[in-house]
Amino acid sequence: MGFFSIDTLITIMAAVFTLGILILIHELGHFMVAKMVGIRVERFSIGMPPRMISLKNKFDGLWLKIFVPWFLQKSVDATSIEYRIPRKRPKAGDTEYALSWTPFGGYVKMAGMIDESLDGETSGQPWEFNSKKRWQQLLTISGGVIMNTLLAFLIFSGIIMATGMEDPLEGTTIGSFVSTEERSVFPAEEAGLVVGDEILAINDQPVNSWEDLTGVVHNLPGETIRVEWLRAGQRYSDSITVVKETVPTSEGAVDVGMIGIGRVTEHRDVGFVQSFVYGAQSTYFFGTLMARGFWSMVTGQTSMDQVGGPVAIAKIAGEMARKGWVDVFYFMAIISINLAFINILPIPGLDGGHFLIISIEGIIRRPLPLNVKLIIQQVGMVFLLGLIIFITIQDIAKL
User: CATH number, domain at 176?
Assistant: First the structure.
């Protein structure tokens, strides 16, 4: 795949779309809750710095500011150019709405809050973050996580409502073959089995249901088994070596034996209310799966090699885009849950770090010193930056 190929272009566009929407929705959550509890939002940006253009309501009209790129500032002798757009009923506003150059997500700058900008200026005004009650601060900090979780729930529900469900049918008839990026052909297909074959026995042990079939195969990773099947009234048999695959379950990721077959299913349309039930179940499943995976990594049961960053997400987003937009949105929902989970971790620089500090201040009934908050934030930012660089290097090495 060449750098300027169509595949590369699709990958870039899918990554920008997926990550951009997810981070923008996250910041929109903070923005909406901040406005709701009366915190002044100084800037809401689509994209990350540097700014390209911005709009702000003032008493004399709507002001448009164009930011001059650094390499042109000497030529025009200015860092920005402003234009006033007259309005019949001008109304002053507190928020500058900006469009920034880096096309990933966005950010919200709230008055009186020590965040990624490391701005420590506070004046005690009633509209500042630090002047609000603890529950209002905690709710504002949680706004991004809430929005990402809600987005995942709505995407799952919408997909299920639009595409319906595939209900498995009874029996041991092969309905499909499994493939993954690492293994395009599994042992069953290699052995010559085809869709429509009915599995009769494994190791001379009759199997009467799909649960019987998977119960035997899943427990024999790496072993060679004798499979007997029926095709058009004629019996066949052959030896097949079971492969080991790691699959997600409600109890976490587990290693099971697989020969790469799927059961026959029947399509069923899903109603409006039921789609939201399935959407909630999918959100819960992937949320708990993420939590179990993280705990497995912390305890050393899972290697850091399995952690993916922006490059891995871009690669998978491109693959999903080539399959279809339904797969892109399904992938977006999963990443949205992951983003929500990561952000609630009590790490300085993340929402969970802010949440922890606010909680500590509530327990001790006084704010932490400003210089302590700045140091905590700086340490957290350095840690996160180092982690992102490490994961990105791993992603590139896997390409």
Answer: 2.30.42.10
> What letter does residue 90 receive in the DSSP assignment?
-
Residue 399 in domain: no
Total number of domains in the chain: 1
pTM over 0.70, yes/no: yes
> Splitting the chain (399 residues) into consecutive groups of 10 residues, what average pLDDT does each group show?
65 80 90 93 86 88 89 87 80 83 79 66 80 92 95 95 91 90 86 94 93 92 93 93 79 80 93 94 89 77 63 70 82 91 86 89 85 79 74 65
Does 201 reside within a domain? yes
In a domain, residue 235? The reply is yes
Intra-chain end-to-end CA distance of the chain, in Å: 11
How far apart CA 8 and CA 103 sit, in angstroms, is 17
Closest CA to 129 of 143, 109, 110: 110
CA dist list (Å): 330 to 87, 89, 184, 248 = 43, 44, 21, 16
Domain that holds residue 220: 166-267
Q: Which residue has the tokens 């993420």?
A: 290
